[in-house]
Amino acid sequence: MQFWDGIADGWRDLGNLARYQRKYNQAEAFYEQSLAVSTDHGLHFSETIYNLGLVALQQNNYEAAYQRFFQLIELVQKQENKARAGFYLTGLAVAAGGINQAERAVKLSMAAQSILESSGNIFPPGEFKEFDHLIRKAHMQFNEIELASIKAVGQAMSMEQAIAYVLQID
Predict the structure, then answer these.
(1) Are residues 29 and 51 in contact, defined by beta-carbon separation less than 8 angstroms?
(2) Is the pLDDT of residue 2 over 80?
(3) How many CB atoms lie within 10 A of CB 45?
(4) Domain residues of the chain, as ranges?
(5) How does residue 51 score in pLDDT terms, banded at 50, 70 and 90?
(6) CB 136 within 8 A of CB 147
(7) How far apart are CA 125 and CA 121, in angstroms?
(8) How far apart (Å, rounded) are the C-alpha atoms in residues 48 and 11?
(9) pLDDT value at 1 more than 60
(10) What is the mean pLDDT of residues 7-34?
(11) pLDDT above 80: residue 24
(12) What is the Cα–Cα distance from 74 to 33, expressed in whole angstroms?
């Protein structure tokens, strides 16, 4: 088992290196290899799916990114440890902004912000800062009163409510 774990980690590390070098197609291929090894050998693969979601965002493939982060929300819903849910919700918010689902983007970004900040994390997480324009674009789709109302709904969501919101509307 440890042998395959090391192989999956190696592919993921190569993907990270390629992503940091902005070689997104290469990064995606490495991450897909890591995912295949992990899936074939029953290993944990959430981090690889997360990275595939980031690569999809960086390639402006918002539908694919949404699917990756949605898959992570489905996984986290079944787990007791939901520590990464705020990061996954941020990914969903950014992807929703990219596919012009403004209300969903605003609600999810506000829910993610509340969840991350309540657990001592920064919003937006560093890897999402370059996509902030998509959330701002979503905000601009509403007048001041509408935006305040939508933001309040998102901010009021607990982690469980935000996860349920994602799963119910998709």
Answers:
(1) no
(2) no
(3) 21
(4) 66-169
(5) very high
(6) no
(7) 8
(8) 9
(9) no
(10) 96
(11) yes
(12) 22
Please give the Cα distance from 119 to 155 (Å, whole number): 14
Q: List C-alpha distances in Å: 116 to 14, 34, 112, 125.
A: 28, 27, 6, 9
Look at residue 66 in the predicted model and tell me its pLDDT: 97
d(CA 89, CA 154): 11
Question: pLDDT by residue (tens digit) across 53-104?
Answer: 999 999 999 999 999 999 999 999 888 778 899 999 999 999 999 999 999 9
User: Which residue type is seen at 1?
Assistant: M
Both structure tokens of 130:
């370059």
120: left (phi over 0), alpha (psi -120 to 50) or beta: left
pLDDT computed for residue 7 by the predictor? 93
